[in-house]
Fold:
Amino acid sequence: MKLSVLSSDEKSLKFRLEDTNFSFANAFRRAMINGVGSLAIDQVTFYENSSAMFDEYIAHRIGLVPIKTPKGYDEKDEVVFSLTADGPVTVLSKELASTSKDVAVANDNIPIIKLAEGQKLKVDCKAVFSNAMKSSKFQPGLVSYKAIDDTTFEFYIESFGQMPPVEIVHRALSIISDDLKDVYKEVKK
Structure:
């Protein structure tokens, strides 16, 4: 198998994978989409919400904000964010303040809600680590491929910001490798 990078930047990666087959190409794509884990806000506690929107609507919007996920995080890890805002203001994702120095929102300018004069919002949020098999909010990016021929495929990865696209590839390959080791152990029994 041969991998050659066609283009790369901090948000996207395009590469060609040669000497493989459709089964591996699709398994690789699925590992990048569903298997690679990231942090996402999963619980929101409201202390005050005098806006015109329901708590559930605001919690859903907050949950879709991508969270930078450094290496080393797993299912045991949780990060707390807090947000306090007084209207009139458009509350942006950058207002979500993390208790961890190495975890923050991936994009500062995502609108969460617009508060009118006198409206207030105060919440605490818990970000947990999981993958897209639990919810699409944990998906680290978009991944597609096209077949050049039966053994050559071009992949395109666009990161949502939780991690660089190259890191998505590395983590997916690690997942595939670990799964194959597990299968090997079972077959050897």
